[in-house]
Write a structure and sequence with these properties.
alpha/beta; 7-stranded parallel β-sheet; 10 helices; 13 strands
Length: about 325
Amino acid sequence: MRALITGISGFVGSHLTEHLLNSGGWTVSGTVYGDAANIAHLRNELELYEAELSELATVRDIIEDCRPDAIFHLAAQPIPSLSRHDPWFTLETNIRLQINVLQAVAQVAPNAAVLVVGSSEEYGHVDATDLPVDEDTPLRPTTPYGVSKIAQDYLGLQYHLSHRLRTVRVRPFNHIGPRQRRGFVAPDFASQIAEIEAGLQPPVMTVGQLDVARDFSDVRDIVRGYALALAHGEPGEVYNLGAGEVHTVRELLDVLLSLASVPIEVRRDPARIRPADTPKIVSDCSKFRRQTGWRPHIPFEQTLADVLDDWRAQIKTNL
């Protein structure tokens, strides 16, 4: 089987690459734009295309050249908070790249299976009566990022209906793990702890809202789900993908602080509190589990220990 991963060098793409190569039976190609450090240890096993995907002709040429059986489209602007500051960049990037991938597949590889990656941010404002969130929960996005993901999601449906493409849509909930960059809660906390341990900043952490509760999964479990989605998912269908349990941001912080080698003071910073933050969201993934048999394997505490160790290694390397 030939896989093409757009955004292969990103946080999720690098873990998906490792999963497919370790699974056996896959040859893997990918698109790279910018830093490729996350896949440096795999470069000899990959066919890479250094390309920016905003032009249809570029995407078509790549797909025509590698003739993939499966396309995992991960290239995107992934940070919800950034979309608040620059909405159009997020909308233009995420929608344009998704259209280009689907249009190119329709033109030169109509038999390829395509994973369209949405987000739990599509659900946005969730009432307590909506919990747990299933695929029929109303979409009420609270960020431009959430809107962009709805557009990607429904483009996947549209191209299935109008072109009969084998698109499978997933809505992953929060996923964390090694290699995730700053801009998300776990690496933001872990990087501060690693810098404090290395003596690069005073033993004080600044935090925002701690009482929100989220459905956190390990990225390594999520990428297993992505592979299963294309192997066993029904084309045209949409599936939630998450742990099905919640942890508050305070719990996440407490676990990381318990792993720190030095005492650390925590201070609230009102500037870090996000507007329109949904207090609690948890997934109902029963549809996906029935379809694929997927279950998360990696405990929350293990994930956070791995995140912190990853940031310690990064800080040490940069000293």
